[in-house]
């Protein structure tokens, strides 16, 4: 007769093992939902989550240590890629759990404020005095100050000055017409290169470039009270047609730019296949580190003006806010106040390749070069951003569809008169449906 | 009270109903206990999200309720009404995406099956280096998807891509086509998905070919059947069961494919390449409209089920016996 006692024992062990493994697995799954704010040895440790922007970790190495020396509060950083950042923030907002302090992307803010994701900094005694008006307007939404504008990235007209000099182009293009004229001159010296280039249909930023053209043409995206979409006006149609014609009729940009995404444009600019583009200051760092250009061989100008003489540009701003579920609001407020010091603000801007949001940040040594001063004096005054309204994501989607449709038809030769107006009319109608629902 | 309830329950069951619960043996009970952790995990990981997704398709789960989703109001079929209404933003794009998804699916399945069958027939012949060829054929299927799709993206670029260069050099086109934007982007994703998956179909069909009894061909030859006759009356019928599996799985996998369109065309492609999975992801996560996103996912699930059902009932017609594999 078979002795089953050993077999039964091993089965029980197996069962117990399986149960333990399940419990361990479930505990592991649930681990991410437990509190992230920790208190070690009686000292407060704040958890901060940021986008994986180059330079942020280096900034924390320096300033978290300094802050701890000053206050005894330590700050731990976690970074998140742009690809999964929205999902991570959403998980935290849904579960009301996560880091104490977190970076905010300006375009996501209205939805997040509506979801009660951020504390009102006014209640914590934080002031935005000395911060540029534009980022301040972004930070203040729906009656609260949701975050401190940490750094911002207005788009300048960046050029390889060396190439322009070789082509005999000595002055910045002050208007769309001049850009087109300069392109003809540039082609005489460099038939295989192009004077200018922007990302095209394969990029979300296409809406930002379109907005720049609209503003330069004197148009608007939404009405003054933000209740109605108006990006099908004559100015807006002219703007989109000019965007399309850059790569087709005027040949200022390569035809292939219609399908560029951000990295493809960067690659063309780094390799000098295009002499100029619109981008934020950190692109200069990228060009210098990956190409053969130097900071001295590059220049920045304000973007050219449209038919009514306006030079306008787009900016994005990254803010830092405090989540309402934190156990340490006062300590988190202290950290934000530390970040608001002009020298500290200048440090993060300089380390990430963007611009300080505090005006006096430009007085700091890091921002004394001509590139920065041009940004401060010429580019920043014309900087605008998207309207901060609920449902903007959907509105932006309709704009993108219209713009990519026109750009694609343009380069494939399928565009005909009236197509631009029709595409924008359709987008405006859809956008108005969204705005009326919100 | 409990006793009364029990007796009432007993009285409610007619006498002619005999519920027989089979008595489980010790080993069977022990087996179920062993399976329980796995069932629990499957329930939590697989079935709970499906049920939850179905539930939130009837709920207004948007930015207002993300932080207190348990209070999100139930709106009945409102989300479904919105996605089926072509006059709303989501509705207009939903129908476009659904159409493109079906084109993508049909094109891919035809391509994968045809290429797979051709490759399997070639592999089934005797030649030197057959083992190496069989291994090489598998490369597209086993190579990391993101890497291969990014390589295809470079090949599809209008100015520097190899595809336009080849087409120009053989005289098929004059200028340069745009494959990653505009109306041709559906061809780009179909080509890449077909290329990635035909090896799997080829290996499955090759295994099927290997298991067809040789005497069937010998009998056919005796009856005077030529190559086409043997292929039509022996090979294809014998491959029917494995073909069913391939087509069914490819239909479902293609319908829910996200990686190829997302990596090749980006997050927000032209209408032509905007397949439903991409649109659902973008719409739900860009706009925080999870109720609408869940409604679209449910529709996609139902479409997949309907296609599978039609295929089973119309194409198979109950003849699922015999044959290879």
TrEMBL record, chain A:
Q: Note the InterPro entries from the entry.
A: Bact_solute-bd_prot1 (IPR050490), SBP (IPR006059), TAT_signal (IPR006311)
Q: Which SUPFAM superfamilies match?
A: Periplasmic binding protein-like II (SSF53850)
List the PROSITE patterns. Answer: PROKAR_LIPOPROTEIN, TAT
Query: Which PANTHER family does the UniProt entry name for this protein?
Result: ARABINOSE-BINDING PROTEIN-RELATED, DIACETYLCHITOBIOSE BINDING PROTEIN DASA
Return the protein name. Answer: Putative extracellular solute binding protein
Automatic annotation (TrEMBL), chain B:
InterPro entries listed in its UniProt record: MetI-like, MetI-like_sf, UgpAE/MalFG_permease
Q: Which Pfam family is one of this chain's hits?
A: BPD_transp_1
Q: What is its main location?
A: membrane
SUPFAM superfamilies per UniProt? MetI-like
Segments crossing the lipid bilayer: 30-55, 102-123, 135-156, 176-195, 242-265, 285-312
Q: Where in or outside the cell?
A: Cell membrane
User: Does the keyword Chloroplast belong to this entry?
Assistant: no
Q: Which GO terms describe its cellular component?
A: plasma membrane
The keyword Transport is annotated on this UniProt entry = yes
**Which Gene3D superfamilies does the annotation name?**
MetI-like
Give the membrane topology, semicolon-separated if more than one.
Multi-pass membrane protein
What UniProt keywords are attached to this protein's entry? Cell membrane, Membrane, Transmembrane, Transmembrane helix, Transport
Q: What GO biological process terms does the UniProt entry carry, in alphabetical order?
A: transmembrane transport
Indicate the segments forming the ABC transmembrane type-1 domain, all copies: 98-311
Say which family it is in: Belongs to the binding-protein-dependent transport system permease family.
Name of this chain's protein: Sugar ABC transport system permease protein
Whose protein is this, by species?
Haloferax elongans ATCC BAA-1513
Q: Provide the taxonomic classification.
A: Archaea, Methanobacteriati, Methanobacteriota, Stenosarchaea group, Halobacteria
């Amino acid at each position: 007769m078979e002795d089953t006692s050993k077999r039964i024992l091993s089965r029980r062990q197996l069962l117990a093992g399986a149960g333990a493994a399940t419990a361990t697995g479930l505990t592991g799954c649930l681990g991410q939902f437990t509190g992230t704010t920790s208190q070690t040895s009686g000292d407060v440790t704040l958890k901060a989550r940021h986008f994986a922007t180059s330079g942020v970790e280096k900034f924390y190495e320096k300033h978290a240590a300094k802050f701890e020396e000053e206050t005894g509060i330590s700050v731990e950083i976690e970074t998140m890629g742009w690809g999964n950042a929205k999902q991570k923030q959403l998980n935290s907002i849904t579960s009301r759990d996560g880091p104490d302090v977190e970076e905010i992307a300006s375009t996501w803010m209205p939805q997040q404020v509506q979801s009660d994701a951020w504390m009102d900094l006014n209640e914590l005694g934080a002031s935005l005095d000395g911060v540029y008006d534009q980022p301040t307007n972004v930070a203040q939404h729906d009656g609260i100050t949701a975050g401190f504008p940490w750094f911002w990235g207005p788009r300048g007209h960046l050029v390889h000055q060396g190439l322009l000099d070789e082509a005999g182009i000595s002055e910045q293009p002050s208007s769309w017409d001049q850009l087109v004229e300069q392109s003809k001159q540039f082609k005489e010296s460099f038939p295989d290169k192009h004077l200018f280039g922007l990302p095209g249909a394969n990029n979300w930023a296409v809406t930002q470039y379109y907005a720049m053209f609209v503003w330069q043409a004197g148009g608007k995206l939404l009405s003054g009270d933000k209740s109605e979409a108006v990006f099908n006006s004559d100015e807006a149609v002219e703007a989109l047609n000019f965007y399309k014609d850059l790569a087709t009729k005027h040949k200022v940009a390569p035809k292939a730019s219609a399908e560029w995404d951000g990295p493809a444009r960067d690659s063309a600019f780094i390799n000098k296949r295009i002499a100029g583009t619109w981008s934020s200051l950190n692109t200069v760092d990228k060009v210098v580190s990956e190409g053969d250009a130097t900071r001295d061989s590059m220049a920045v100008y304000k973007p050219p003006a449209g038919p009514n003489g306006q030079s306008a540009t787009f900016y994005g701003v990254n803010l830092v806010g405090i989540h309402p579920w934190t156990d340490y609001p006062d300590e988190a407020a202290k950290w934000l106040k530390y970040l608001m010091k002009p020298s500290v603000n200048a440090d993060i801007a300089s380390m990430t390749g963007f611009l300080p949001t505090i005006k006096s940040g430009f007085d700091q040594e890091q921002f004394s070069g001509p590139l920065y001063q041009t940004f401060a004096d010429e580019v920043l005054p014309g900087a605008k951003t998207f309207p901060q309204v609920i449902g903007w994501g959907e509105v932006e989607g309709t704009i993108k569809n219209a713009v990519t449709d026109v750009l694609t038809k343009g380069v494939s030769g399928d565009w005909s008169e009236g197509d631009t107006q029709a595409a924008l009319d359709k987008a405006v109608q859809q956008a108005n449906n969204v705005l009326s629902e919100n | 009270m409990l006793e009364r309830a029990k007796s009432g329950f007993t009285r409610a069951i007619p006498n002619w109903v005999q519920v027989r619960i089979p008595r489980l043996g010790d080993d069977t009970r022990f087996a179920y206990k062993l399976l329980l952790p796995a069932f629990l995990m499957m329930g939590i990981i697989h079935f709970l999200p499906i049920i939850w997704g179905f539930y939130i398709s009837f709920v207004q789960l948007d930015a207002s309720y993300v932080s207190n989703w348990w209070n999100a109001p139930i709106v009945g079929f409102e989300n479904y009404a919105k996605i089926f209404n072509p006059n709303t933003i989501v509705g207009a794009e939903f129908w476009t995406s659904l159409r493109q998804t079906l084109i993508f699916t049909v094109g891919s399945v035809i391509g994968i099956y045809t290429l797979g069958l051709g490759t399997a027939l070639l592999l089934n012949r005797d030649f030197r280096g057959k083992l190496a060829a069989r291994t090489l054929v598998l490369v597209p299927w086993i190579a990391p998807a993101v890497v291969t799709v990014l390589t295809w993206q470079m090949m599809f670029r209008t100015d520097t891509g190899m595809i336009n260069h080849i087409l120009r050099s053989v005289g098929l086109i004059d200028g340069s086509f745009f494959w990653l934007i505009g109306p041709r982007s559906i061809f780009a994703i179909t080509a890449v998905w077909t290329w990635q998956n035909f090896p799997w179909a080829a290996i499955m069909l090759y295994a099927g070919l290997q298991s067809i009894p040789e005497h069937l061909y010998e009998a056919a030859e005796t009856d005077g059947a030529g190559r086409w006759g043997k292929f039509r009356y022996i090979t294809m019928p014998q491959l029917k069961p494995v073909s069913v599996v391939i087509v069914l799985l490819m239909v479902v996998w293609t319908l829910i494919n996200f990686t190829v369109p997302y990596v090749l065309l980006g997050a927000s492609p032209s209408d032509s390449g905007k397949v439903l999975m991409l649109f659902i992801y973008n719409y739900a996560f860009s706009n925080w409209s999870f109720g609408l996103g869940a409604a679209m996912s449910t529709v996609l699930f139902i479409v997949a089920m309907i296609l599978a059902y039609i295929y089973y009932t119309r194409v198979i017609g109950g003849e699922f016996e015999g044959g290879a594999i």
